Every structure is written in structure tokens, then in C-alpha cells.
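Translate structure to sequence.
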């Protein structure tokens, strides 16, 4: 490119237009767009990049927000909102960048040193994808980490129905669960996938599609079965969110370090396939290459009753997992470090955990064993799998509020073991359906009484089960307070918490041959109204001779 200083003087009108152009050129020069692997340089104004095949975006040089995202020339950013940003955006940030291979690719860095976060954006020619990573160096306040794209709902119309909150005028709970005139509910929380099975997600329409590719979630928290908000149509914007951390029924702390990479891909409407992003290790600071990582392989055994088995690793350096197939598993792409290994049958941890150390360039071997709890011999409701599957309303709770008009009634005058789990509610709420009366029959009373196991997947506000039968009331010691996750659960579409089993030994004197009625209550030192009262979520109930 010729030096502007050597050009002929321009007219006043042309000089005014040229001045604006030179401001952009200065940014491009500063960002290294005219060189190969140019050093980092501050952006004095906005930074734009066009892939040449349909995607163009602009990063604000002052605050680092993605202020424009175009597909085939059409602006996708929702009116008055950023096309993309970390959390809700910043008022100011240090925006720097550089390019590679003669300007065919660009890496933009957006740093906010006061909160300890650096957001990276990488793009390249002939690839309609903005690749991203987020480095978090210290605890966040508020304690969330997410990238969120806010796009036009008039163009992208295929958001999940359960998460389309626009037009739902009645607030049911907080500021995030709503109902329409028919009593049907919607919430941003009702669009989620388990991390272990997460696929690209987003919305499409009008010849456009915008999708998050989660890719590497090893620095997120909560384990393989954690889920969080993905797509929400508010009426004014389609919010497509990649959560790296939140307090939404979270069982682990925030992991510090580089999160990702992940990506925002634009298409003609079709959902993109998952893809490797290993190549980004050559561009994103702090990203480890495959050669700098290790792996784990081994065997897993036990009785799982047909459930899918998973081996998961968790430690300060990340979380990883692999499915067990024919008794073997492989976990790759693991950062060096020490991890706790857990075997799951379904979503229930079984057997003892183990400590394992992974080193770069090596595969560590591991043998895991564990079995699901034995089935109840006198009766059993549900399956010991770490989920409420099979219980009443369990098939709806991920996409509806408990108050939704489509839910089956939560309260009944009584339940019978003969009715099976499908007639027994998956959750018990202190102010809604507690106590619950469960009728069962004994052919004879065991001499030493019976042992009742109540397995739960989650609780809210200190809720835990207590029982009473035939003049017997369980002692407080049998219902210890659960771990406090300080978060709503089923009202936000999740029952995933910390699996806990409560065991009650009921004396023979409280039982009789024939029909017996067991009263199950939710106890807690806390209180609340209706579905925000203390609760427990059931995994299984089993009765055996003591």
C-alpha cells in the first residue's frame, strides 16, 4: 500500500471522507492487518474483519463489544444491542490485535484487567466462524462467565419453543420464568443440554443461521451432566449463550485459566457439525497443543443394569470424561495435572473415586469399578441412576415450570407402590405436596424391621426427607442437612445437583402385616411459598428387611 503522505492534496470534501478512512486504516495497521504475525498493537478505533465468504464482524475499539455481525451482507445484531460480548459487556477495555499470513486471519484481544478477563476473537478467510476463548485470572463478581450473542428475532425464528419468552406477560418467578394466558410457562432456562451430550446450538431463519459450537468445555464446572442456558428468544433479541460458569445449581467452583476455545458459526440455516479447534493453539495465548496434553485409558467394571457408564475426571486444571464401551474407556486432550476419577452408572456415582496424575505426551492407565445399589426387595420406586426418570412430571420438568398447566397434579391423597414411579411425583415441595402418603403391603413383618432408602438428586433451601409410620417418626439425625448450592433447581428446569441417599431404619413395632402407610415429608429450617419452598428431587425409593 502506498503512503498516504505521498498522495496529492485532496479536496475538502474528499479530505473529510479520507480522514474517516485513515482512522480505520490506522487501526488496521496497528492491528497488524498489513503484515504477517505483526506484534500486538492497541486499536484506536473499531476493528473489522470480513471472511470473504459471508461473515463480517466489527469489534468496538473502546469497550471490546462485537457491535456488528453480518451474514451475506445482512446485519444480525439485535436493534440497540451488541452482537456479542462477555457477560453484559464493559464500558471500557484494552482492545489489541494482530494478523497472520498476510492478513488472511486475525486475532483480537479484549482485556479488562480490573476484573481479570481477556476475551479472544479469531477469524480467518473462507471460514464463516468467529472462534473465541476467554481467559479468567481471578474470581468474578457477579460469579458468572458467559459469551452471549444478541441477534434479531425477526430473522432467526427457530429458538426452542420452551425458551421463547417474548409475549409471555405474566411473571411466575424472579425475572426469568413467565406464563401466558393459558398457564403455559417459558424461560431461558428451558433450553439446555447436558455437557456430555452437548451439540452445536442456536437459531436460524430467513436464510441465516447462528450457532454456538461449544467445543472444549474442560474448564467449565459441574461435571458431564451439568446443563445451563443456551437459546432464549425474548422478543427483542435471540440470545445465544455459551456459559463457562454460573451459579445455576453449580456443584463446583469457577476454574481459573483459559476457557475454550468455542465458536460462533454462521450458516445458511443448517446446524453446523462439531469440529476440532486444535489449530487455534498456534494463535491463542495460553492454549495448550495436543503435544502438551496427555490422556487416560483403562477399564471399568461393575453391575450397571443396562445404564450407560461414564468415567469422569475433575481437578483444578479441568474436567474430562469418556463413555465406557465394552468395559473400556479413553479420555483424551487432558491437561497435565492431578484429577479425581469417578465412575458413573447413568448419572449416579458408583464405587470409590481414585486420584490420577496426567502428564504431557503420555497416556495414564486407570481401572475403575462400581455397581449401582441393590434393588429394593420389598418395594422400589424409580431406578438408582442419579435421575428422576420415570417419576411423575420428570419428562416435563426440563422445559416447564412446576406450575405449568400441562403438568400433572403434584398432590394426591395417597400413592401406592403398585402404581409405580409414574404415579409418584418426581419432586416434593414443603408447601405444595408434603407430606406424601405412600401405601405398601407386607406379606409379613420382618423381625428386625425394615430399611428404607430414599435417594435424591437435588434439594432446595435445605430440603431433605423425613418419614413417619405406625407411631414411628424418624430422628433428625437420619435427615442431615444437604449441601447448599444456593440455587433454584426444578423451577429452572434442572434436577441435577448432588446425589444423596437417606437411610431410615423402621422398627418392626411400627409395621403390620398387610397394608401400611408411609408418610414422607420435606423438612427444613427454611420456608417458602409454593414451588419456592424447600424441596427434594427423587431418584429412587427402596424398602428391604433391616
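Result:
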Amino acid at each position: 500500500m502506498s503512503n498516504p503522505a505521498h498522495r496529492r492534496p485532496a479536496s475538502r470534501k474528499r479530505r473529510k471522507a479520507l480522514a474517516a478512512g485513515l482512522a480505520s486504516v490506522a487501526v488496521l495497521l496497528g492491528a497488524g492487518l498489513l503484515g504477517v504475525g505483526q506484534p500486538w498493537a492497541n486499536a484506536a478505533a473499531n476493528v473489522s474483519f470480513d471472511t470473504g465468504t459471508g461473515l463480517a464482524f466489527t469489534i468496538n475499539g473502546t469497550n471490546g463489544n462485537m457491535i456488528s455481525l453480518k451474514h451475506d451482507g445482512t446485519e444480525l445484531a439485535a436493534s440497540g444491542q451488541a452482537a456479542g460480548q462477555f457477560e453484559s459487556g464493559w464500558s471500557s477495555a484494552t482492545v489489541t490485535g494482530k494478523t497472520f499470513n498476510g492478513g488472511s486471519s486475525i486475532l483480537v484481544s479484549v482485556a479488562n484487567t480490573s476484573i481479570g478477563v481477556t476475551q479472544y476473537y479469531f477469524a480467518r478467510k473462507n471460514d464463516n466462524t468467529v472462534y473465541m476463548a476467554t481467559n479468567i485470572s481471578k474470581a468474578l463478581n457477579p460469579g458468572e462467565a458467559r459469551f452471549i450473542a444478541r441477534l434479531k428475532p425477526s430473522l432467526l425464528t427457530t429458538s426452542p419453543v420452551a425458551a421463547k419468552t417474548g409475549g409471555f406477560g405474566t411473571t411466575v418467578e424472579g425475572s426469568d420464568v413467565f406464563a401466558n394466558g393459558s398457564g403455559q410457562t417459558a424461560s431461558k432456562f428451558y433450553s439446555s443440554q447436558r455437557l456430555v451430550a452437548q451439540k452445536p446450538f442456536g437459531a436460524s431463519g430467513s436464510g441465516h443461521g447462528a450457532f454456538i459450537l461449544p467445543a472444549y468445555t474442560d474448564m467449565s464446572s459441574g461435571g458431564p451432566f451439568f446443563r445451563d442456558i443456551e437459546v432464549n428468544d425474548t422478543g427483542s433479541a435471540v440470545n445465544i449463550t455459551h456459559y463457562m460458569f454460573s451459579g445455576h445449581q453449580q456443584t463446583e467452583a469457577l476454574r481459573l485459566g483459559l476457557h475454550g476455545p468455542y465458536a460462533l458459526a454462521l450458516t445458511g440455516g443448517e446446524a453446523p457439525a462439531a469440529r476440532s479447534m486444535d489449530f487455534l493453539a498456534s494463535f491463542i495465548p495460553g492454549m495448550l497443543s495436543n503435544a502438551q496434553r496427555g490422556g487416560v485409558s483403562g477399564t471399568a467394571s461393575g453391575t450397571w443394569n443396562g445404564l450407560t457408564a461414564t468415567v469422569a475426571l475433575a481437578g483444578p486444571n479441568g474436567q474430562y470424561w469418556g463413555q465406557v464401551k465394552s468395559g473400556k474407556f479413553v479420555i483424551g486432550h487432558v491437561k497435565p495435572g492431578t484429577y479425581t476419577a469417578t465412575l458413573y452408572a447413568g448419572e449416579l456415582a458408583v464405587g470409590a473415586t481414585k486420584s490420577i496424575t496426567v502428564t504431557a505426551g503420555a497416556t495414564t492407565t486407570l481401572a475403575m469399578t462400581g455397581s449401582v445399589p441393590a434393588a429394593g426387595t420389598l418395594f422400589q420406586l424409580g431406578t438408582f441412576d442419579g435421575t428422576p426418570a420415570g417419576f411423575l412430571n420428570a419428562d416435563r420438568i426440563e422445559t416447564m415450570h412446576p406450575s405449568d398447566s400441562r403438568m400433572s397434579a403434584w398432590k394426591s391423597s395417597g400413592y401406592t407402590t403398585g402404581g409405580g414411579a409414574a404415579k409418584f411425583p418426581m419432586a416434593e415441595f414443603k408447601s405444595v405436596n408434603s407430606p406424601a402418603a405412600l401405601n405398601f403391603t407386607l406379606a409379613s413383618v420382618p423381625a428386625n424391621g425394615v430399611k428404607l432408602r430414599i435417594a435424591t438428586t437435588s434439594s432446595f433451601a435445605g430440603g431433605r426427607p423425613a418419614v413417619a409410620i405406625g407411631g414411628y417418626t424418624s430422628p433428625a439425625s437420619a435427615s442431615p442437612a444437604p449441601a447448599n448450592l444456593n440455587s433454584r433447581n426444578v423451577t429452572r428446569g434442572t434436577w441435577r445437583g448432588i446425589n444423596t441417599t437417606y437411610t431410615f431404619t423402621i422398627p418392626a413395632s411400627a409395621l403390620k402385616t398387610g397394608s401400611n402407610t408411609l408418610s414422607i415429608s420435606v423438612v427444613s429450617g427454611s420456608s417458602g411459598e409454593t414451588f419456592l419452598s424447600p424441596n427434594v428431587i427423587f431418584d429412587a425409593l427402596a424398602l428391604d428387611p433391616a
